[in-house]
Amino acid sequence: MSVDACRMEAVPSLQPICDAAEGYRAHLLSLGDGGGFPAARVHGYTDESIVVESAVASGVSHEAAEHGIARFHDELANVMSEGEEELARDQPAYPDAAESTAELDKHGFVQTVSTGNMRYAAETELRVAGLDSHLRLDLGAYGSDSRDRLELHAVVADR
Fold first, then answer.
1. What is the largest CA-CA distance in the chain?
2. DSSP assignment letter at 112
């Protein structure tokens, strides 16, 4: 959920997370190269870790940030559902990705994903990009399985 959308809803229980997102965004932009893109990166972290650490870095107590995680899951699902058209437009699949997964499937390879994204977000992104038809998403590992990305390979192995 964007900070603006968060504020428009005026949901009191979300206000600390909204404030944290706004503060953290300003902090990241202040570290940027002048072009608006933050120098700090969050690649390699799970969605939950990013949300909690962003909130804490913005002055929200760790307890309050943790308390907001359940709501984050619900809001993320809503945002992903409502934003499918935008997602398709702004985040297309890499060229030939669908063809590659189809070819591997044709040769009997079992394919899945391991990602720090929440499962719903990952499944939505893959479906919207047309990449889900040859993947065994039930075997994948997601940020909703563990906040520690280094534990995700074990989740795939267990499944």
1. 53
2. -
The Cα-based distances of 91 to 43, 125, 138 in angstroms read 16, 8, 23
Cβ atoms of 124 and 87 within 8 Å: the answer is yes
Nearest CA among 139, 134, 143 for reference residue 51: 143
Spatial distance between the Cα atoms of 123 and 128, rounded to a whole number of angstroms? 8
Burial degree of 66 (CB within 10 A; 0-12, 13-18, 19+)? middle
Q: For residue 33, which amino acid is it?
A: D
Please report the pLDDT score of residue 2 as a whole number: 43
The pTM for the full model equals: 0.70
**3 state SS of 92:** coil
C-alpha closest to that of 55 among 30, 95, 24, 9: 24
User: How far apart, in whole angstroms, are the C-alpha atoms of residue 21 and residue 106?
Assistant: 44
56-to-8, 18, 39, 82, 97 alpha-carbon distances in Å: 23, 12, 19, 28, 37
State pLDDT tens for residues 33-73.
Answer: 444 444 455 667 888 888 888 888 888 888 988 988 888 88
Residue 145 to residue 113: CA distance in whole angstroms = 13
